[in-house]
Write a structure and sequence with these properties.
The complex is a heterodimer of chains A (196) and B (308). Chain A has 196 residues and is α/β, with parallel strands linked by helices. Chain A has helices at 13-22, 49-59, 61-70, 80-85, 185-194; strands at 3-7, 26-30, 41-44, 75-78, 86-90, 104-109, 120-124, 134-138, 143-147, 152-156, 163-168, 171-174. Chain A has a single domain (3-194), classed as Rossmann fold, CATH 3.40.50.880. Helix content of chain A is 24%, strand content 30%. In chain A, strand 11 and strand 12 form a beta hairpin. Chain B has helices spanning 17-31, 42-51, 63-69, 78-87, 101-109, 146-154, 172-189, 196-203, 207-216, 232-240, 250-253, 258-270, 275-282, and strands spanning 35-39, 55-58, 92-97, 114-118, 139-143, 159-162, 222-225, 246-248. In chain B, helix 10 (232-240) runs parallel beside helix 12 and helix 12 (258-270) packs antiparallel against helix 13 (275-282). The chains are: A alpha/beta (196), B alpha/beta (308). Chains A and B meet through helix 1 and helix 2 of A and helix 1, helix 2 and helix 12 of B. Chain A: In the presence of PdxS, forms a dodecamer of heterodimers. Only shows activity in the heterodimer. Chain A: Its EC number is 4.3.3.6, 3.5.1.2. Chain A: It catalyses: L-glutamine + H2O = L-glutamate + NH4(+); aldehydo-D-ribose 5-phosphate + D-glyceraldehyde 3-phosphate + L-glutamine = pyridoxal 5'-phosphate + L-glutamate + phosphate + 3 H2O + H(+).
Amino acid sequence: MTTIGVVALQGAVSEHVAMLTGLGATVRQIRTPDGLDGLDGLVLPGGESTAMARAAAKVGLFEQVRERRESGLPIFGTCAGLILLAERVEDGEALAGFATVGGLDITARRNAFGGQLASFRAGLDVQGVEGPAFPAVFIRAPQVVAVEASVQVLARTSADGPIVAVRQGGLLATSFHPELTADDRLHRLFLSICRG
Amino acid sequence: MTDTLSPTTTIADDRTPEDRAIVNRGLAQMLKGGVIMDVVTPEQAKIAEEAGAVAVMALERVPADIRAQGGVARMSDPDLIEAIIETVSIPVMAKARIGHFVEAQVLQALKVDYIDESEVLSPADYVNHIDKTRFEVPFVCGATNLGEALRRITEGASMIRSKGEAGTGDVSEAMKHIRTITGEIRGLAAKSDDELYVAAKELQAPYELVRQIAREGKLPVVMFVAGGIATPADAAMMMQLGADGVFVGSGIFKSGDPVKRAAAIVRATTHFNDPEVIADASRGLGEAMVGINVADVPAPHRLAERGW
């Protein structure tokens, strides 16, 4: 049995929980460091990264998640989750002084496509995901503006478009929201990473 | 801050109505579990973001002041809205009058992230609400009962806000409205298929939408609670009653220590099921907003009764 935590400070928590439960995982919602023991993987959901970082700081959650990540816990971050996994965030003043999770050797840019009027859907070819294009939902989404050699680029919005999905070892991150679709292929990919 | 909301933001090309519905309802899903705060200056917006708000509502006067000062309340000055958009990286909402589709066009042109078609402002149309399907930008609308919520969703609202009684600091109307809406949803879920036709008639809402809610046991959009939330315990109670999040209007910046109270309400919303955390968040906050008992507000001045 695979046990996955979903960080439940704020955001699209129930959507990830439903998708993972549907794939047979046992899911635990994480609001404090107490729930982190015995997890096979952790999801950082979409939401507002500034709000999550502040809520996490109150209970020291991301410092603890960072330790688990360093000892090999697989983590899947979507949208805000990608920002929290990024080692560097451009124009990240609103996150300054708050612990994030880190670990992905990328530079992320928040709200990189623009405001809500620039939110969109697009079919993406995602490496490691078989079958038709992935129906990606981008909402005030971030972009990955730089990656180090250790990072595998899984998807761009177009051949020469910005990077919107990456993997580095057990860390998987997307600018878009697979949890808002009925397509569970990226969650399956993450569960296969967790099951090693 | 060119990467945040700036006037250079463009509308994504080629969005279909389905794309628009998914991304607009989706933004509200990203706000779940959070607090949206009314702000009247860029400085207050910064305080809200620092306190952990998931979005801010940019307006010229908080509801308590609109109530105290009277007169016609309208859309805010574009300069104020743009200054707030440039100050914070979280989503910025702004209010248009009920039925005032040109104020909504202006707010869309200003590239706000969400429009609140709000009873807190003076209604512009006592018959029709805005046809929200004509807009690219998402709308949140108030509701006091399920039928009202469903009519707003049919008109294109991407998010519902139970109304409460804004500017009072009295949580009793917020309580009444969320209990009414969640109770009516439970009632629908208990009906047999052949009873849903009459239910739709009584709710004055489309049958297909009524049937969908009966089957799923929930609204197809996110629902926050608003109107009278003034303390961490108020916010946590609304979350325990099934709210997806809370709007706090006058409750923060009309209190003695807005910085502390804002963070405390956020904390109680996150940990809404943990009374020890709520107790801790409730300590030493200074004066709450003074408030008015809803019972003392004469019926013509009750904002929740605006909207149809």
